[in-house]
Structures are given as C-alpha cells and as structure tokens.
Amino acid sequence: MRFLIDFLQNNSLYGVSKSWAQRKMSAPPVVLAAVSSNGRPADGNVGVLVENSLKEMSENAVSSASSAVVENDLTSTVRGGVEDVYGEDTATEDQYITPWTVTVASGYPLLRDPHYNKGLAFTEKERDAHFLRGLLPPVVISQDLQVKKMMASMRQYQVPLQRYMAMMDLQERNERLFYKLLIDNVEELLPVVYTPTVGEACQKYGSIFRQPQGLFISLKEKGRILEVLKNWPEKKIQVIVVTDGERILGLGDLGCQGMGIPVGKLSLYSALGGIRPSACLPITIDVGTNNEQLLNDEFYIGLRRTRATGQEYAELLHEFMSAVKQNYGEKVLIQFEDFANHNAFDLLAKYGSTHLVFNDDIQGTASVVVAGLMASLNLVGGTLADHTFLFLGAGEAGTGIAELIALEISKQTGAPVEETRKKIWLVDSRGLIVESRMESLQHFKRPWAHEHEPVNNLLDAVKAIKPTILIGSSGAGRTFTKEVIETMASLNEKPVILALSNPTSQSECTAEEAYTWSEGRAIFASGSPFSPIEYNGKFYPSGQANNAYIFPGFGLGLIISGAIRVHDDMLLEASEALAAQVSQENLDNGLIYPPFSNIRKISAQIAARVAAKAYELGLATRLPQPENLVAYAESCMYSPHYRSYR
C-alpha cells in the first residue's frame, strides 16, 4: 500500500479530483484512500483516483491493503432512482455517479475517526483485517446493545447540560451511534440536543467549547469567505444552517456562542429528516456582540467588539451568500436561524428570489403552528375563517405565523389575503397594533394595523377582541397571566392557547397554568416541552409546537426535488401534511400534534408533499418526477446503522 501511494505521489496523481478523473477515464475508476504520515486519510473521506493504466495494480493492492473498506458506502446510481441497501442518499446528489470503493485508515486512527469508528461493534474479522487487535477489549457487541448502554449512562446525569455535553462527546467519537441513539430515543433526547437545553449550552458555549463543529466566519475573514468555505472538508453540502447569534431563542444576543443552534438544528436534519450528516454545514457569522457580559467574559470565543451594522454588516452577508452559491451551487439550502427582526426580514426578502433560503423562525414556526391550528379544528369546530386570532408578540415568529394563517384562509375561502388578515390581531410591547399607530410601526407590522381604538395591554385586548385562539410568540415568560387565561376560558368553551416562546423559562405560561386556570378546558401546546399534569383526577399531556416537526422534512423535500426556490405554498403543504398525521387517539388525549416517536415517517410525508408542490410550481430540477414521492423520500433518508468493512 505504501509503495502504491508513493508511486501515485511521484506520478502527480495524488489528490486529483473525482470530476477530472471521471472525464479522463472511459472505465470506472478505482478509489483508494491516501493515508498521510499521521495515519489519517490525506484528502478527507475519499482518497486518490487512479487512471486506467494503474487499475489492475490498484485492485490487487486494495484486496490486500491494510485500510478498512466500506462496502456499498457509495454505490452506482441510475437516473430515476438509487439502489442503496443502507437507505443512504446518493439519490439526492447529482446523477451519473461512477461506482467506486472508499477506504479509510486502519488501526488506531480508525478508532479516532467519528465517521467510521464502531467501537466495540467491530467484528472479529474486522479487528484482524484492520489492525485493531489489542486496541479494543475482547468483547464484540451489537449497535443495539451500545445504544442501550449509552442510554443507561445518559440517564445517570441529573443536570441537562451534562447530558448535552455527553451527546456532543458521542457525536465527536462515533457519529453513527450518536444518530442511532437520537433516532431510537427521540422523545427523550430531543430536549437534550435542542430546546430547551441548547439555550443553556449557548450561554455557556465558551466554557464548554472543545473542538469546532462548524465554520466560524467573522469580520476578520471579509474578502476571503470563499477561501474559508473551501477549508471545510466536505464538498457536497446540501444544507447550511447559519446564525449571527443576535437573537438566540428568547435569550437575546449571544454572539459567536450561538453556534450551538446551527449544530443542534443540523443534528435534527439528519436524525429526523434523513439528510446525510456529511451534507450538513453549521455556520456562525461573527460580527461582534452587544452583550457586555460576554465581552467581559475571559472565556468568550468570539470577536470582542460591538455588533457591526449597516453597510459593514450588509457587505459581509452579501459576500457570504455569493460565496455559498459559488462554492456549493444553486440548490444548497441556506436556513437563516436566530437573526434579529431587523435583519431576518430583510435577508429573506433580499435573497428569496436569488437563493434557496428558508427562515425557520419566520416560516418554520408559522408552518408548524398552522398545522396545530388545523388539527385543533377537530376539537373546537369550524374552519380557520370562523376563528379570531390574537397574538402576543409581533416579531419574526408572530408576523410569520399570522401571514401564513391569512394565506391558508385565503386559499380555503378565495378571499383576498388583505381581507383575511382582518381576523388576526397582534399585541406588541406598546399594546394592540392599530391603524392610528401606522407611522411608528416597523414595516413588517403594518399589514396588521386594523381599525380599532388603542388598547394598552394583553388582558384588555382579550376582552376587546374576544379571540378564540391566543398565541404567544413574545419571548417574555409568564405573560399569559391567570386573568388572561380565565378570560379566554370565559369567552370560549375550548380556548386554544399556544405558548410558543423558548426556552421553557420564556414560555408565556406553563401547561399546568393553562389547564388549571381554564378548568381543564384549554387546547394547549407550547414551544418547549412540559411534563403531563393532573387536574381534578385527569391527566393532561402537553403537546409541543416544535419546529422540528417541519424543517427536517421540509428540507428533505427541497433536496429530493432539486428545488431552487422556496414558495409559501410549500409551507402550507407542509402544514397540511403534518396536520394529517394527527390521529383520533391523539385528539382524544387533547393533543394537536402527533408523537415524535414516528417523526421520520412524518418527515417523509412532509417531504413528499413539499417536493410535489415544487414540481407543480416548476421549481424542481430533478427530473423526471418519481412516481411515489413518499417511498422515494424514505429511500433517500440517511441510516445510522453501521457499515460492514472488509
């Protein structure tokens, strides 16, 4: 093997690109992993492509090489579908991929590579073939037993942040076991890897930071962002989640430490939506922070300066968006996450017509809430057009949800969206948004300024508007007071109350408060999880209006269709698909969302509906359209099961 690598280096074939080699060869190439002096693959996961003149020698070398070979990790693809026994997504990449074999380092470096390490699950044959004898205890165990062992260990931690750190350690040590653990125990571990625990992780990110899990692009890299993107080892990126850390959950400006959000979101893209981990890229754009506590923290890992604004900010973001498109192409999904209102709306408007962009705070939240509202109609009766909506909070989430509700009512009734907006009222920090405040309102609030006398607080707004549905997106905890909920209950037999703000400390009310103050009549869901509560001898489960129901499947739908733009109709399709997954049993228990235990099936249904709408709108580029989009989506989903090495 060493002779072969030396030969390749001396003949200038070392590190040649796949695309160049495929153009040069008439027969399928052979791929060998070039192992550097430290024992790791010299060029990421894929090594050296060998010209036909070396093919016979290469095949002989591979058969006796000391490197572990991943069987069927990359299989031949045929236009219109992929046969992949592991369910891993080569179908979502460009077609006409030439078959190859991938090799990875053996011995001790193999145990330190999270992409290929299997720990005690390496078989006896694999241990002999890949120089692992003595590097592992003699026992061989299954991946399922590893999962059982890890969950037993995880449950011993009493502090949620300790569980979060244990999960991150596992991800850095054994990627497939991490995802297997998360998929098999999603309801228990979702609050650990994402809200609410990820909020605390971001607050303390500087102290718990161990090694980078994504790209940090700061003002120091201005003019060099394309070069920075090329430093990332994976080249086939399909989803980017990016934040500038200015509005992390309901916790405010956490600057560079907001990286925990893109990392967490992309973990869910892979676990819940089946996007390959290697196709996901978390990015934090560091333009400084206005958080004085962080600026004075000796462990803070970001730029120690106040936030860039105006032209300086806009130029950096524009360079970033241009570089992403240049490096990864037209079809890479860029998800904006936790940007402040004044930037979030502008970025979505500016790049929505030129890039495949999605804002989860505006669009994902809206889609999951509309799905819950559709399901709740089975309990409260009527159509969306029959109800009156009152929001506490008029930022990204509030106005995004309100607009999607108005669009859905318009779709159902045929009425202009300008007319359907009149059923929806918003309260911000200055009171009810009314027409007399028009001149002082931010542009995204103006469509919601209706004719009404001024109202200064939420309680008076509830009494004046008499809503049937109350939605909290304020980021302010305990603002649905006892008087507010009692008033809602006096106006409605079954008041719908959604307290959406994250993390748990910022929720407008708790599940216990909603059920107790409404005498058990509320239809309740929250953004963060609450335990079931007992009231008057009856147990009330707490539904969760979690964006994780929507964005993983939504992203998968965009990818499998090769969509080049996001359209509002796709969001409505996702809402309808999710609402359709709520069973009668769920409704009988007062739940307006299905259990997370079935989330991958739900994501496949959402992906199929989103992809179908992309084809209908002429925004899809992967042709022809598969006959069965649900089956196709499921076949494209990443599987965390171990590969067999030979």
TrEMBL record:
Segments forming domain Malic enzyme N-terminal: 171-352
Q: Which cofactor does it need?
A: Mn(2+); Mg(2+)
Under the heading SUPFAM superfamilies, the entry gives: Aminoacid dehydrogenase-like, N-terminal domain, NAD(P)-binding Rossmann-fold domains
Keywords in UniProt for this one? Metal-binding, Oxidoreductase
Q: Which residues form the Malic enzyme NAD-binding domain?
A: 362-615
Against Gene3D superfamilies, the record matches this protein to: Malic enzyme, N-terminal domain, NAD(P)-binding Rossmann-like Domain
| Protein family according to the UniProt entry | Belongs to the malic enzymes family.
Stated name of the protein: Malic enzyme
> What organism does the record attribute this protein to?
Penstemon davidsonii
